[in-house]
Amino acid sequence: MADTISFARGAPSLDIVDVEGLSAAAQRAFANDPGGLTAYGTAIGYVPLRKWIAEKHGVDESRVLVTNGSMQADAFLFQTLVQSGSDVVVEKPTYDRTLLNLKSLGAQIHMVSLERDGISTDELAGLLRGGVKPSLAHVIPNFQNPAGYTLSLEKRRALLDLAGEFGFPIFEDDPYIDIRFAGESLPTMLSLDESDDKVVYASSFSKTVAPGVRVGYLVGPAGLIDDIRKLATNTYIAPNMVAQGIVYEFCASGAIDRSIATVKAALAERVDILCDALAEHLPEATFQKPEGGYFMWVSLPEGSDIDAIFAAASERGVAIVKGTDFLLEGGENTLRLAYSGVTADQIEEGVKRLAEAVHAVPVAG
């Protein structure tokens, strides 16, 4: 069998990671602050990086906590706000590990339809007026995982209004914000929240620096961040100071801007090739061309069997993720394609193999 072409993993291919820049940042980090990198540090994270993040978002440092990846940030927030039986709102579909984490906590999960301009705020309003009282509403506003859709400005404002009216926090999970390669940038809900108490914001350097650094962060109300700091202290004393020190040097030097430019240019090219290949080899598929991020949501004709297609694709050396992984029910005709980890010259061959797999599986009905 030919080597597997993977559209499964949401990670950048090595050719677009600034390995030289990271190596230089590591050397500077150890030269400039050997004590800070080699000590336990504090639960709030590497202090210079925390300050850099606070300045980036225009908030006080007391509102920032730096963690071992944004998934650790998510876990801390869920542990703090979600108990067994708590109502939690998520998008439909949503990130599969979010569903797994919330299920493990015993949350009552309410999936709200995801439209091409983001979560249905009308559907959410109906849910809230029907008596659901969320501990939080989890939203991935930019280039959503798995769909690749972006929440419109109108819906960002509507979500903030609903949060104010019904008294729940918005968890703005935003690791892809800087990976925009088309269209207009939109303000975060964090920046739009004049009260500074409706939004908890999370992001990550995995998508802009490298996944291996495992550095993420939370920005939220100072009291909540302090509660999470105590949880972090009891969990690991302090996060990885070496990784955070390297990320700080990478960011402070401006290397992150060059890295983001490289990633955006590469992913824009890959999206163009992917869309053209799907149109040619799998014309029955429907999708929205992403303006950024790592992912595309693809719908096949009703009656398609994604389990059988997944197996047929694996036999042909192409990896995908089933849409059903991102839902509590339904999605049997959907899949997610990640274009971040495939090089441009692999994409058309990968789509050809996927199309062969789809066409090998009969459509029911």
TrEMBL record:
Annotated keywords: Aminotransferase, Pyridoxal phosphate, Transferase
Organism: Svornostia abyssi
Protein's recorded name: PLP-dependent aminotransferase family protein
Pfam families: Aminotran_1_2
Classification via SUPFAM superfamilies: PLP-dependent transferases
Top-level taxon: Bacteria
Key word Transferase present: yes
Known cofactor(s): pyridoxal 5'-phosphate
Domain Aminotransferase class I/classII large: 5-354
GO molecular function per UniProt: transaminase activity
